Protein: Adenine DNA glycosylase
Amino acid sequence: MNDLQRNESVRRKLAAWWDTNARDLPWRFGRTTPWGVLVSEVMSQQTQMSRVVPYWETWMRAWPDAAALADATTAEVITAWGRLGYPRRALRLQDCARAVRDRYADELPRTYDELTGLPGIGDYTASAVLSFAFGERIAVIDTNIRRVLSRVFLGEESLGGSAKPAERELVNRVLPADAARSVTWNQSVMELGATVCTAKRPLCDVCPVAEHCAFLAAGRPGLGERRTRPRQRFAGTDRQVRGIVLDALRGLPDGQSVLERSRIESLWADHVQLDQCIASLDEDGLIDMLPDGGVRLPQ
Structure:
């Protein structure tokens, strides 16, 4: 079997697998707007998909389009973001919504340059929206896609970090020429990486393209290897402290908007770190610091 035949066989097998195994997520299969797709992609960055679904559903009920989100208060947006993590994404998403409302009359633009010109929208999100929302032929490059394609076609691990030129060349080379097939391809490769061809424990015995996988044929060399930079611990980090402060603000009783200084000091024993984190939250626009030492969500 030559390379062209192998590539086509992989595409057919993955498309058939996608038809019967794709997770039934609420933003898939044409059940939401392009704006809904964009929201799902922003929420899914560095967050498990299972955690995203309830937040996305609540968010879209409250703000079904860009104009609705643009008019929300900052406090409402931060509260609705909940425990998705990296709350600055919520503020950037609202900035994006305002740009869509003001520049494009509440209609998400359909070109790569226009999408990447929106606040907080980079290469991956723009490509995903063009593919999944608009059906355009464009390579979508994320960690799961890079891992699957590197294993199947190159026989080696993708070590994370920025995409290497060889990986980008591969993603574009194997992308089907037909637009509709390219959408299915992007979705199915990403889904395979999320559910079967996982980083540390790939389920090779149920993989639909195992017979074509160069990585499996080579004995899975370097399975699970990552770039040398160690993964940052979470416990005790500024990120944890910032999250604790925001959770306390979101959990205030109805009618109460200010977290008093005495309550703040009870949240974390290291008050130097605590104050640094509060200052950084204020600098990021996630809280307002009050003269008496209390804090509140932005009004």
User: Anything to note?
Assistant: The two ends are 64 Å apart (CA to CA). The domain at 34-132 is CATH 1.10.340.30 (Endonuclease III; domain 1).
